Amino acid sequence: MVTVHSEEFGRTKDGRKVTAFDLSNGSGMRVRILDFGCTVQSLTVPDRGGRPVDVVLGYDDVTSYEDGSCYYGAVVGRYANRIGGARFVLDGREYRLENSPGESNHVHGVFNKKIFEAAAGAGELTLRYRSPDGEEGYPGTLELEVCCRLREDNALEIAYQATTDAPTPVNLTNHSYFNLNGQDGSTVLDHRLRLNCSRFTEYAETFAQTGRILSVENTPLDFRKEQRIGARFCDGYPQFRLCTGYDHNMILDGKEGELKEIGAVRSEKTGICLEAFTTEPAVHFYSGNYMHFDSVPNGKNGVKYPKNGGFCLEAQHYPDSLNHPHFPSTVLRPGQVYRQKTVYRFSVR
Predict the structure, then answer these.
(1) Is residue 239 within a helix (H) or strand (E), and if so which, with residue range?
(2) CA 173 – CA 118 distance, rounded (Å)
(3) Is residue 343 within 8 Å of 259, Cβ to Cβ?
(4) Quick one: which of 154, 162, 195, 205 has its CA closest to 75?
(5) Which residues are catalytic?
(6) For the chain, give me the number of helices (H) and strands (E)?
(7) For the segment 170-205, what is each residue's pLDDT rounded down to a tens digit?
(8) Is 258 exposed, middle or buried (0-12, 13-18, 19+ CB in 10 A)?
(9) Could you tell me which CATH class the domain 3-348 is placed in?
(10) Domain-wise residue ranges, the chain
(11) CA–CA separation, 240 and 235 (whole Å)
C-alpha cells in the first residue's frame, strides 16, 4: 500500500511556505516531491544488499533551489530545451521570449521556480500551475496538471495534462538528475546505458538546432547496445566536443503517443537499474556537463557534485520545433488537451 504524508520543507526568500510530500510503498521505495517546481527532491530505492539509496541529486533547503540553475528534479516548461534565438512565429505572428542567462536562446522556462497547488490522493500527488498569458513572452493562459504516482513495482509514473485559451507551444518534462551510486559525489561515467534511439537532432554552434536529423551509426551517440557512459568521452566527434559531453535530443524508436521503452541504466556498484518509458517522441540525454561550476550550490549533505555527477533522461518533443516545421508539432490550441506520460522503474540486477 502506498502512503502519502506531508511536512514543511522550508520558506522562500519572500516568506512563502514550501511543502514536501513523501510517497512510500511496501517495496522499499520512497519519493519526496516538493510543491516548489513540482520537484523530485529525493528518490530512495533498495540496492542489491537491501540498503536504501537516494538516486536523485538535489538540495536540502529551499534557498538552494531558488538560487540553483541546474533544474534539479523539477518539471520544466513552458518549453523544455531550447528555442533558438528566443523567438518563434505562430499563425503568422512573431513572439519574442526571454533569453536564458548566458544564452542567445530560450531554455526550459520558469516553472521550476514556481509553487504549484498540491493535492494528495491515494498513492499519488497532483500538482497544478496556471501560467498566465504573456509569461516569459508566451501567448495564452496555460492550465497545467502534473500527477505523480508511486507504484508497488517501484516505479514513479508522471502524467502531464494541459489546456490553453490561445495557441501556444508546450513541451514539458521532468529534469531529474540520477546517480545510481547514490549521494557519494561520484560521477556516472561508470554507469552502463542502453537507449532505444537510432537517430538524433543536430546542434548548431549556437546550441540551437540545425534542423538536420542524423543517424547515431558510427558516432559516440550510439547506445543501442549497452555500454559505459564514459566509454567514448574523449572522442573527437564534433557534436560531442560542442557540448563537452552528452547533451543531445535522441529520437526514440517506436510510435509517438504509445508508451514505449526509452532504455535502461544500471550501476555495477549498487546493482540498481533504472528503466524508463514514455509516450513522447524523444528523450534528451544529458551527462551533467555543467553541474560542477562554482555558481552551483552544494548538493545534499553538503556534497559538491562533480562534472558528470548525474545523468538526465528528459522525455520530450524535439527542441526548437516551431522553427523547424518538419519536426513534430508542439503547438497546443484551444479545445485540445496536451497529454504525456513518463515512467521511471527501478529494480536490482
Answers:
(1) helix 238-243
(2) 18
(3) yes
(4) 162
(5) 175, 314
(6) 2, 27
(7) 999 999 999 999 999 999 999 999 999 999 999 998
(8) exposed
(9) mainly beta
(10) 3-348
(11) 7
